[in-house]
């Protein structure tokens, strides 16, 4: 049976972190679908300059601002997580702040909230196999990013009264100044020989930002309708995780080899245990999502971008 889909596009959608790597692509995807976007940013003049995008400057963790920005909205997309900051800031902004916005959305009668989570919430230790949405989550001894993303997901699970969707991508590829995998990580590899160490057989699970944004936009806009079966769409009134990963299998050798080759430096391959499973995205495909960017194109895009930078 095909997943439930609708051509209806909500009139107003709220996107936090609208000036970020994922947030800006989500704004574009929503505008392409005919939506009006309230783009939440912390600094004036930083929202995407797109038709139908209305900049909203403020702190979504402030209850008064949260209530104002979601009033009359049909859906909310949250993309903010300060992953480069210390644990206290990640706890305050993500774990404590995101539910403030979710509760405001619920109280305003918003239909659904889409939260950009991460596949890093899953335990992907050496020896653990493939992970789907039912897989075990990381323990408290995991890194700060994984633990605070896990705890944000759990906190949103406690906000009843609206449909919540936790979109969990692995490494997000795509060009951009703030792109971790196309720009920031390669920069570190080029500048620091210690960053060139990698376990070649380790799985490199990935998705392209264009494909990720398309899934988020289709879920947020209601093109993928809520239903009572997580295999066909978000469960109405519940909190449904959904993985967003390419079906093109890749290893760390593919990624690091591409980066070092483009930069003209040598990788250092380490021999140690590593996770070799896959992030399974069968649920998203059951919702009608089909990624369009293949591994060859994604790696070529990384290489071309790095060579163009000189």
Automatic annotation (TrEMBL):
It comes from the Bacteria. Transmembrane segments: none annotated. InterPro entries: Epimerase_deHydtase, Lipid_A_modif_metabolic_enz, NAD(P)-bd_dom_sf. Pfam families: Epimerase. Residues 14-216 form the NAD-dependent epimerase/dehydratase domain. Coiled coil: none annotated. This is NAD(P)-dependent oxidoreductase. It comes from Nocardioides pocheonensis.
């Amino acid at each position: 049976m095909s997943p439930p889909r609708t051509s209806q596009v909500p009139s107003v959608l709220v996107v936090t972190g609208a000036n970020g790597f994922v947030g800006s692509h989500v704004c574009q995807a929503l505008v392409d679908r005919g939506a009006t976007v309230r783009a939440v940013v912390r600094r004036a003049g930083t929202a995407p300059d797109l038709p139908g995008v209305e900049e909203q400057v403020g702190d979504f963790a402030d209850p008064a601002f949260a209530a104002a920005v979601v009033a009359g909205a049909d859906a909310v997309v949250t993309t903010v997580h300060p992953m480069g900051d210390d644990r206290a800031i990640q706890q305050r902004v993500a774990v404590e702040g995101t539910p403030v916005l979710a509760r405001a959305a619920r109280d305003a009668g918003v239909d659904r909230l889409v939260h950009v989570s991460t596949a890093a919430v899953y335990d992907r230790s050496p020896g653990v196999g493939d992970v789907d949405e039912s897989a075990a989550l990381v323990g408290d001894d995991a890194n700060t990013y994984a633990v605070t993303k896990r705890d944000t997901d759990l906190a949103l699970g406690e906000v009843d009264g609206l449909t919540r969707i936790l979109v969990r991508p692995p490494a997000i590829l795509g060009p951009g100044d703030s792109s971790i995998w196309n720009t920031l990580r390669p920069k570190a590899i080029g500048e620091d020989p210690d960053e060139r160490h990698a376990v070649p057989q380790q799985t490199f699970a990935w998705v392209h930002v264009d494909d990720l944004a398309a899934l988020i936009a289709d879920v947020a806009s209601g093109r993928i309708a809520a239903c009572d079966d997580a295999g066909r769409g978000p469960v109405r009134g519940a909190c449904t995780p959904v993985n967003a990963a390419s079906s093109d299998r890749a290893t760390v050798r593919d990624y690091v080899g591409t980066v070092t080759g483009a930069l003209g430096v040598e990788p250092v391959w380490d021999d140690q245990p590593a996770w070799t499973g896959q992030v399974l995205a069968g649920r998203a495909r059951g919702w009608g999502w089909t990624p369009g960017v293949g591994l060859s194109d994604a790696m070529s895009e990384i290489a071309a971008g790095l060579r163009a930078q000189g």
